[in-house]
Design a protein that fits this description.
single chain; alpha/beta; Aspartate Aminotransferase, domain 1; Aspartate Aminotransferase, domain 2; 7-stranded mixed sheet; 3-stranded antiparallel sheet; about 45% helix; globular; binds pyridoxal-5'-phosphate
Length: about 400
């Protein structure tokens, strides 16, 4: 259909310049196919545990249908404070050092907007979650990407991080375990990063949304390292580990001045996160641990299976230490990651996400989510293997 308006006149230039998420574009194609198995989604296949859903029903029954404090329900902030102290060894005052928002997505956006002056640079490791670079740009900042590699377990190399630094770098955005690579940073690496951040007088924004889904070695929050609490914005949410994507609850913990900045944007943008979802988040923090652990065990079994199968079919794949994503190298088949993903979709009816969707450093890889049943994974792996065998035979 022809455009009814002139976009360059009525849509802001910096918005026109930002590409759409590569994931969405790719899945529009996959959705049109019958019998395709999707390893593309970035959300749990489990339905939210019943006691958490039931908390929504109770909230409605009790007539909890109002706005809440802009920072979020005080009872929820109290629970978050206890949870973060117990599991991440860093303490925040629920009065003024915690803000609850509409998912990590909104919290991250508000955080970036709260700290960035036009032209400030924000460093981050890549491949990374699709929103990082656009969110930095939309906030008026300049994204500075640092490539990560399987040799480093898709963590960062501190020397490359130091080499990428320039005057004007204000903060480093990290995400361990990482979407899409499953990379984790060791405590030692985080200590090196902390020393660098202090030396350059920067902040760290740490998106720890997958931290409960860590399979080996435990999780360390950079905010808990000596001297880092007041240089960190600890960001977390309920979407992944508690299977609560649709509830849209995330939060930031940080020094009072930063929370005040985030809160002002959040207040004028959305007022508060939905009260019913906040009630459910309280229930998740109080009683959700065993359900979360059961889901994590399932993910781990699926991870071991799919990573083994990828390696067997010639897709070199490191073992992700966290998240529910495998990130195999697909370059052996002589195609770029988009061509490879299209080929697998057409010939095996399996949808995976081209690595290039996660930034230029993702080229040569693909993301396959194992947040789907083991039966689906078995079927997907068999289909992919048969298609790739055929491809190799035809060469
Ligand atoms: C690293 C990372 N951060 C943030 C988000 C967004 O989470 P939420 O559902 O809390 O907005 C995602 C979702 O895929 C993610 O992978």
């Amino acid at each position: 259909m022809e455009e009814s308006i002139n976009p360059s006149k009525f849509v802001a230039k910096h918005i026109l310049d930002i590409p759409r998420s590569g994931i969405r574009a790719f899945f529009a194609i996959a959705a049109t196919m019958d019998d395709a198995i999707s390893l593309g989604i970035g959300e749990p296949d489990f339905v939210t545990p019943w006691h958490i859903r039931e908390a929504a029903i109770f909230a409605l029954e009790k007539g909890k249908t109002s706005y809440t404090d802009n920072l979020g329900l005080k009872r929820l902030r109290n629970e978050i404070s206890k949870y973060v102290e117990k599991n991440y060894s860093v303490s925040y005052n629920p009065e003024n050092e915690i803000v609850v928002g509409v998912g990590v997505s909104e919290i991250l956006d508000c955080t970036l907007r709260a700290i960035i002056n036009p032209g400030d640079m924000i460093m981050y490791h890549e491949p990374c979650f699709v929103s990082y670079s656009p969110s930095i740009s939309l906030a008026g900042g300049i994204p500075v990407a640092i490539k990560t590699r399987p040799e480093d377990n898709f963590s960062f190399n501190i020397d490359e991080m130091k080499a990428a630094w320039k005057p004007g770098c204000k903060a480093i955005l990290i995400n361990f375990p990482t979407n899409p690579t499953g990379g984790v940073a060791s405590r030692k690496q985080l200590e090196q990063l902390a020393a660098f951040v202090k030396e350059k007088d920067m902040l760290v924004i740490s998106d720890e949304i997958y931290s409960e889904l860590t399979y080996e070695g435990g999780h360390t929050s950079i905010a808990s390292l000596p001297g880092m609490r007041d240089r960190s914005v600890f960001i977390h949410g309920f979407s992944k580990a508690f299977a609560m994507t649709g509830f849209r609850i995330g939060y930031a913990c940080a020094p009072k001045a930063i929370i005040e900045g985030i809160m002002k944007i959040h207040q004028y943008e959305v007022m508060c996160a939905p009260i019913i979802s906040q009630e459910c988040a309280i229930e998740a923090l109080k009683n959700g641990k065993s359900d979360m652990e059961k889901m994590r065990d399932q993910y781990m079994r699926r991870r071991d299976f799919i990573v083994r199968r990828f390696n067997e079919m010639g897709l070199k794949c490191h073992l992700p230490s966290g998240t529910f994503y495998a990130f195999p190298n697909v370059s052996a088949f002589g195609m770029n990651s988009m061509e490879f993903a299209k080929c697998v979709l057409n010939s095996a009816k399996v949808a995976i996400v081209p690595g290039s969707a996660f930034g230029p450093s993702g080229e040569g890889y693909a993301r396959a989510s194992f947040s789907t049943s083991l039966q689906n994974l078995i079927k997907a792996a068999d289909r992919m293997e048969a298609a790739l065998d055929k491809l190799s035979a035809g060469k």
